[in-house]
Structures are given as structure tokens and as C-alpha cells.
């Protein structure tokens, strides 16, 4: 049996505008939610400040200054052999306040130039519309996606860019990792997904469900509109799939895992099937949540189902009801908690490395929706050591990626999963989303910059660069 991937498989690399571009106030760009996030560190969450506070360090303001380096970076991507490059459009470059009457022409021109450069190098752009950087003004003025006015602002923004770039971009995604906010546990996730802050006396879960539903409605409207602009568009959703296994074969653990996964599937179920799942309606009823949605909005969900499921995969987790085990309660299933999986090892940041989990997810999601899948993030955040001669021997990253590609290959060739492509995360080193560090590196291209913001920003190739080049060249693993 061949170990090759389908013809036209999109081997690529992925980043997001706020983690790479910098130039946060250049050419009329407005402030975004990512611009008020300070640097945290391993295990220490980033602070969300009220506007920009002087004396604090905001790593996304400069990031790796891709805004001014994109030509040399794309040259490296071309040398690496990338067929696709996933990035996002910074919404506040286009509509600096989010609610402006007219778009900012300078912002539009930047992406024209970027997409032209990619296409000239034979690289297909894969574009996320909202990757953790909603215009900050939409928070201060409207309270973020809890407010239904944001649906119209998002649709207007999407219409503007989809119309402008209709002959340059074919692959789109609406909201990045929309389900990160599922548990409402982390203030950072609710902030970056929805531009929402939750007051102490509010019901967190209810607020997040409403904001998420508003995003899902906005997304569905954009899918429909996008197909009207250009019927060739492929428009997907973007999910963080972190499968949560049953810890044991206790029937209660199996059921607990189903219930905790429903909370995540809620998002892709609506994106892919076009209606609110019955388990969610029952849950809202039980909790007495009064969700605000109209018959027209339900129709919009039905009319705007996605063409494919884009997703990130980094790790898995386990759920148990066994009293003796420690863990964090993240669902209302009686006595259920998320616990450590003893069969797998974790990265330095505690992310549990599980290549077989990728095959598991590909199967589970394909069975659920029977739509093409696209792995738009996967990778290994690690400390790298730059040697005196400038080289970086990142064999641990090669091992991680190889193990995941092996499982991906089985899903495609043995299990029959339809897979469009693979764009590993942070193909070039970028600012970490969760911690704001530069030294949690994912790249095959090293960027000389540290956690404090010092460095020349010079780019150089790591060992994984040549390795990934060969994978792409062979359209898969060598036999
Ligand atoms: P950093 C959780 C679980 C899986 C993916 O993350 C996640 C998260 C968020 O904490 O985020 C995605 O940089 C996200 C990217 C991000 C990447 O994973 O914290 O889409 O923006 O950079 C890696 O190591």
C-alpha cells in the first residue's frame, strides 16, 4: 500500500496575523484585542489591560515584523517547498474600529501585495478571517460578540475582503478555534475568541454560549455570502480538536467523555449541520438559559454550512469519574473531571503528545460529518538551542511531526478519510498565543528574538527545514 498522500495535497505552514505581523499601528491600523495582551510566561497567563499601559511589554506590537519582512520570508517558504500558507487578515487593518463606514485602503493594499507575492511563488493562501484579534473598539463600544451588532460588522468586513481578494484567495475559514471558549474557564480564551469580558455576577457559561451563537450565525452568513461572491470558494470552520478520551472502560467514564466532547462538538455540529444540536437545547432548558436567537437566524445557520472542517491538533486529554484520581471539573456530568493520561508524555508546557490521537480525531470527525478535513495547525512548541555556527538541531520537532504525519497517512490510506492538507503551526518562529513568549518555538525557520523582545529578527534554517522539504518533495513519508 502506498504511503503517498493525494495528488494536490496542500502541504503548508500556518501562522496568524497578530502573532507574526507586528506593525500594530502602521498605515492606519486600529488597535485589536491582541494588542492589549501583555507577555505571560510558561504557566503564567497573559494579562489583558485596559488599553495600552505604558511600561508594560506587549509582544504582538512588533512580533517578528512580518509586515516588513514578508518578501524574504516568502522566499524561504518557497525554498522550503510550501504549497500553501495559512495566515489571517488583521480585521483592524481593514476596519480600524470595526464599525467604520469605509475600509482602510492601505490595509487592503498590504494583503493585495502579500497574496500576490505568495501566488507569484506558487503558494496558495489559506485565510482565516478572525484569528484572535477583533478590533478593540468593538469591545469598548459594544462589549464584543455578546452584542448582536457584531454579526453585521463581521459580515461587512468579510464581504469587503472576500470581494477584494476573490481572484487571489480560494480557501477561507471564519473564526479560529471557535471552541476554545467552550468551558469559559480562561478569561484569555473568551477575550480572544469573542472580545468579551465577564463580570463576577454574570453566568459565565450563558454569556459564552450567547457570544458563540452570535459568531456561529455570523459565520453561516459569511459562508453563504462567500459562495455568492465566488462559487469556487472553499469556506471552512476552524476547530481546536483536543479529543477527550474515557480514562477507563468504566461505563461512567465512557458517558462522561461523550458529554464533555458534546460541549466541543456543539460548535462544529452547527457549522457543519446547520442547526443547534438537541443535546444543547436540552442543556439550555435544564439550566434555564434564555438564549437570544430568531427564526431568521436559525434559517441563516441552515443556509450557511461549511465546505470543510479545518482544525488544529496538538494533544489529547482524558476524562474520569474515578474518585481517587485528581483533575479539573469541566462539565456537569456527576463527579467527572479531566485527568492526566498515564499512557502519554507531555511537552515542557504540559501539552500531552499523542500522535495516534490525530488518527482518532480524523476518524471521529469524518464519521460525524463526512466532509473534507484540513489539518490547519499541528506542531511542537519547544525551547530551541542555537549553536555557535547558527544551526538548530531540533530532532524532537522532527520526531513529533513525523509521528503525526505517519498517523495522518494511515487515516487517509487505511481509513479512507478525505484530507485536503496539512499546515503545521508556526512554520517560522512567532509569538506564542497562550504565553506571549517568543521562546516557545514551533518553526522550521528560526527567528532571532527572545522573550524580552531583544534580538536582530534575523531568520535562519533549523534542521527540520530540510526534513520537511523532503516530506513535501516526496508527497509524504519515504517508504
Ligand atoms: P501557543 C489550546 C489548545 C490548542 C490550540 O498555542 C490552542 C490553544 C490555545 O491556548 O491554540 C492554537 O502559541 C492557536 C494558535 C496558537 C497555537 O494553538 O499557546 O490557534 O494561535 O499559537 C499554539 O503554544
Automatic annotation (TrEMBL):
PROSITE patterns per UniProt: GLYCOSYL_HYDROL_F1_1 (PS00572), GLYCOSYL_HYDROL_F1_2 (PS00653)
GO CC annotation terms, alphabetical: cytosol
A biological process term (GO) from this entry: carbohydrate catabolic process
A single MF term (Gene Ontology): beta-glucosidase activity
Domain of life per record: Bacteria
Keyword Protein biosynthesis: no
Active site: 377 (nucleophile)
Keywords: Glycosidase, Hydrolase
Family according to the record: Belongs to the glycosyl hydrolase 1 family.
PANTHER family assigned to the protein according to its UniProt record, in alphabetical order: ARYL-PHOSPHO-BETA-D-GLUCOSIDASE BGLA, GLYCOSYL HYDROLASE
NCBIfam families reported for this sequence: PRK09589.1 (NF007154)
Name of the protein in question: Glycosyl hydrolase family protein
Native organism: Lactococcus allomyrinae
Amino acid at each position: 500500500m502506498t504511503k503517498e498522500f493525494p495528488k494536490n495535497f496542500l502541504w503548508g505552514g500556518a501562522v496568524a496575523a497578530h502573532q507574526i505581523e507586528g506593525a500594530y499601528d502602521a498605515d492606519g491600523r486600529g488597535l485589536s484585542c491582541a494588542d492589549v495582551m501583555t507577555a505571560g510566561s510558561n504557566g503564567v497567563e497573559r494579562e489583558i489591560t485596559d488599553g495600552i499601559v505604558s511600561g508594560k511589554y506587549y509582544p504582538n506590537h512588533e512580533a517578528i515584523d512580518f509586515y516588513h519582512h514578508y518578501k524574504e520570508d516568502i522566499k524561504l517558504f518557497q525554498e522550503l517547498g510550501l504549497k500553501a500558507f495559512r495566515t489571517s487578515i488583521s480585521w483592524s487593518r481593514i476596519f480600524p474600529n470595526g464599525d467604520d463606514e469605509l475600509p482602510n485602503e492601505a490595509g487592503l493594499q498590504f494583503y493585495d501585495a502579500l497574496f500576490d507575492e505568495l501566488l507569484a511563488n506558487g503558494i496558495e493562501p489559506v485565510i482565516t478571517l478572525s484569528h484572535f484579534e477583533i478590533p478593540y473598539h468593538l469591545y469598548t463600544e459594544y462589549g464584543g460578540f455578546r452584542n448582536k451588532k457584531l454579526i453585521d460588522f463581521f459580515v461587512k468586513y468579510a464581504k469587503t475582503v472576500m470581494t477584494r481578494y476573490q481572484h487571489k484567495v480560494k480557501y477561507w475559514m471564519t473564526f479560529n478555534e471557535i471552541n476554545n471558549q467552550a468551558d469559559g474557564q480562561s478569561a484569555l480564551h473568551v477575550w480572544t475568541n469573542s472580545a468579551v469580558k465577564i463580570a463576577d455576577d454574570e453566568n459565565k457559561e450563558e454569556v459564552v454560549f450567547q457570544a458563540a451563537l452570535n459568531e456561529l450565525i455570523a459565520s453561516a452568513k459569511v459562508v453563504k455570502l462567500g459562495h455568492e461572491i465566488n462559487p469556487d470558494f472553499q469556506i471552512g470552520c476552524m476547530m481546536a480538536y483536543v479529543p477527550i478520551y474515557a480514562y477507563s472502560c468504566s461505563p461512567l467514564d465512557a458517558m462522561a467523555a461523550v458529554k464533555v466532547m458534546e460541549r466541543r462538538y456543539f460548535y462544529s455540529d452547527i457549522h457543519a449541520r446547520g442547526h443547534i444540536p438537541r443535546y444543547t437545547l436540552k442543556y439550555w432548558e435544564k439550566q434555564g438559559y434564555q438564549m437570544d436567537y430568531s427564526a431568521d437566524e436559525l434559517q441563516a445557520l441552515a443556509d450557511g454550512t461549511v465546505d470543510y472542517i479545518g482544525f488544529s491538533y496538538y494533544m489529547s486529554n482524558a476524562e474520569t469519574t474515578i474518585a481517587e484520581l485528581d483533575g479539573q471539573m469541566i462539565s456537569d456530568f456527576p463527579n467527572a473531571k479531566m485527568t492526566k493520561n498515564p499512557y502519554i508524555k507531555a511537552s515542557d508546557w504540559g501539552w500531552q503528545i499523542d500522535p495516534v490521537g490525530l488518527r482518532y480525531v480524523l476518524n471521529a470527525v469524518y464519521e460525524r460529518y463526512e466532509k473534507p478535513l484540513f489539518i490547519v495547525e499541528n506542531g511542537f512548541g519547544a525551547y530551541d538551542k542555537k549553536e555557535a555556527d547558527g544551526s538548530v538541531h531540533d530532532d524532537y520537532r522532527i520526531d513529533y511531526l513525523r509521528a503525526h504525519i505517519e498517523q495522518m497517512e494511515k487515516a487517509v490510506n487505511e481509513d479512507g478519510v478525505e484530507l485536503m492538507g496539512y499546515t503545521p503551526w508556526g512554520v517560522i518562529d512567532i509569538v506564542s498565543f497562550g504565553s506571549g513568549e517568543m521562546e516557545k518555538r514551533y518553526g522550521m525557520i528560526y527567528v532571532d528574538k527572545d522573550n524580552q523582545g531583544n534580538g536582530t529578527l534575523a531568520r535562519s534554517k533549523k534542521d527540520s527545514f530540510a526534513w520537511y522539504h523532503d516530506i513535501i518533495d516526496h508527497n509524504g513519508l519515504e517508504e
